[in-house]
Design brief:
The complex is a heterodimer of chains A (379) and B (193). With 379 residues, chain A is α/β, with parallel strands linked by helices. Chain A is built from eleven helices and 13 strands. Helices cover 31% and strands 25% of the residues of chain B. The chains are: A alpha/beta (379), B alpha/beta (193). The interface between A and B is medium-sized, with 23 and 19 residues.
Chain lengths: 379, 193
């Protein structure tokens, strides 16, 4: 969907002539009361569920959660996925043409924040004629958008599901983002963000950014269970039907000796093929900047006073990137404001990635919560 | 507590329209009842996944927390009533939690199995730990790690400078005011700071 009118941004800049890619699932009811907005995290898109008929491996990123008969049941709800501004999956981003210069935005794409995304999403809902969302839902950075919705447009949200998220990033989290950004920015192929005109992609930086990200999304236990100290050569031998053979080290500093190295390199390569370097910078910055308590002297209690909807907060015990204690801060502030809130702390081993996985306890909590949301719908 | 009559007897102690925190709320039946029948609002605290799910399914606000970690996320006197129904006896930090109950609630209502109920005394006299309808566990697999009596709780309350607003026993769904330490399987205290 194309938008003429400039979108004022938190930075003071504005974005004009922009487009938002979105998908919808299910049917909007006559009262337009059953809409659920699903907000995406770092490397996802508006394609939250289902598959494209003509495309292999095109499953939506939250397909195990959203669909007919699933926890977020598209037989009952009208689900909307929107690709955020600055992303690289269809909505206007740094790879698109800047109407002011006629060239790709590159590094000149304005810095966008969680609040800017939420404002853009609200405009799209306006265009769809949806005034109030039955629920807004998101995990990680998507959870930050869901939380932001409840503060910027409290009258437009019935319920918010904030999963594996945080009221802001702590120093360690910003530090991880900064390592990723420096990897990209110092790649000689980055060209100050204007690499499109040089016909190159800073793949080395993107690979490293993805590798460090990936490490932080997993738990120590899961990584050990999945890879341990297994050697790549031993894994290959096992594949060839010679599992008992003790393979010797390669005694190389640069070959992928261990399976975990091979796995991270593979993930990095894959990511560098499809993700945009400027988008990575923008989205990690949006994560860093999100801090609704900032305008209230760091007082989250006061910041969340604006919210009026009901909340489900979910965290995962082994998630150290968005740890349960950060979710509990949100819960505490909502309790302070006497808001309706439930909080589930799922004992899952998978670290931050758990929010995308198919844990039955997690899914049942979300499903039961949406059962309650469905009961409140005016049909 | 599974017994609906006991649940109702305790619900009678909760003023209409109260803001309630139910520590160890189980499947949320008590809060559900208080919300429907007595216009209360509030939250349950639970640790068990299945109970958290049951609460969400019945529309009761629930916070998944381990009570042994305390009630730090709750502010002083932020609830009219804090319930601790059949929870105290499972807690390692029972004394701290008793204090916390009275800190977070203007009124704390505590119910727990009275170990001095006469059948229990009889059993111990015979040299055996009691196994009854109210205390159905064998000594080696009981989750009741704090075994106290109606009289004991009065001492613990005094030790922590808590006022006893009311106390009585419950037996077969009826309130026992005469010698509850002998004649009631369940002890109930209404406490305040």
């Amino acid at each position: 969907m194309h938008f003429e009118a400039p979108l004022p941004l938190q930075s003071g800049a504005a974005l004009r002539d922009y487009a938002l890619s979105y998908e919808t699932y299910g049917t909007l009811n006559a009262h337009k009361s059953n809409a659920v907005l699903v907000c995406h995290a770092l490397n996802a898109s508006h394609h939250v569920a289902g598959v494209y008929a003509d495309q292999a491996n095109s499953e939506g990123w939250w397909d195990n959660m959203i669909g007919p008969g699933k926890a977020l049941d598209t037989n009952r709800f009208f689900v909307i996925g929107i690709n955020n501004l600055g992303s690289c999956f269809g909505s206007t981003g740094p790879m698109h043409t800047n109407p002011d210069t006629g060239k790709a935005y590159g590094a000149d794409f304005p810095v966008v924040t969680v609040e800017d995304w939420v404002d853009a999403q609200a405009r799209l809902l306006d265009a769809l004629g949806i005034h109030k969302l039955a629920a807004v839902m998101g995990g990680s950075l998507g959870g930050m958008q869901a939380l932001s919705w409840t503060l910027r447009y409290p009258e437009r949200v019935g319920h918010a599901l904030v999963i594996a998220s945080a009221p802001n990033l702590n120093a360690e989290n910003i530090a991880f983002n900064e390592v990723a950004r420096r990897a990209i920015v110092t790649d000689p192929d980055f060209h100050g963000g204007h690499f499109y005109e040089h016909g190159v992609v800073p793949k080395r930086g993107l690979r490293i950014a993805r590798m460090i990200g990936h490490i932080t999304y997993l738990s120590d236990d899961v990584m050990n269970e999945k890879f341990g100290r297994q050697l790549r050569a031993a894994a290959q031998a096992a594949k060839d039907g010679k599992p008992e053979q003790l393979t010797s080290y390669l005694y190389s500093t640069q070959e992928a000796e261990f399976q975990i190295e091979s796995y991270l390199r593979y993930q990095g390569d894959k990511f560098a093929e499809y993700f945009d370097a400027n988008t990575y910078l923008l989205i990690t910055r949006a994560l860093d900047y999100f801090d609704p308590a900032r305008n209230f002297g760091g007082d989250l209690d006061r910041a969340l006073a604006a919210a009026s909807c009901k909340f489900l907060i979910v965290s995962f015990t082994t998630d150290w990137r968005f740890a349960p204690k950060r979710s509990r801060e949100i819960v505490k502030a909502l309790l302070h404001n006497q808001r309706s809130v439930s909080y589930a702390e799922i004992d899952a081993p998978h670290g931050h990635d758990a929010f995308l996985l198919n844990d039955p306890r997690y899914k049942n909590v979300v499903r039961s919560y949406f059962d309650g949301v469905a009961k409140e719908l005016t049909v | 507590m599974s017994d609906a009559t006991i649940q109702r007897a305790i619900a009678e102690l909760v003023p209409k329209g109260s803001r309630v925190l139910d520590l160890g709320c189980g499947d949320g039946a008590m809060l559900d009842y208080l919300q429907r029948e007595r216009d209360c609002t509030g939250y349950g605290i639970e640790i068990a996944d299945a109970n958290v799910l049951a609460c969400i399914a019945r529309g009761v606000n629930v916070i998944q927390l381990n009570l042994d970690e305390g009630l730090a996320i709750f502010e002083d006197a932020s609830f009219d009533v804090v319930l601790q129904i059949d929870t105290l006896q499972h807690l390692r930090n029972a004394e701290v939690m008793l204090r916390e109950t009275a800190r977070v609630g203007r009124v704390g209502i505590v119910a727990f199995p009275n170990f001095a109920h006469w059948p229990n005394r009889l059993s111990v006299l015979q040299g055996r730990m009691p196994v009854t309808k109210r205390l159905p566990y064998q000594w080696y697999d009981t989750p009741n790690i704090r075994v106290g009596t109606h009289a004991d709780l009065a001492d613990l309350a005094a030790r922590n400078s808590l006022r006893v607003l009311d106390s009585f026993g419950l037996q077969e769904g009826r309130i026992v005011r005469f010698a509850p330490n002998w004649f009631a399987g369940t002890s109930v205290y209404k406490l305040a700071r």
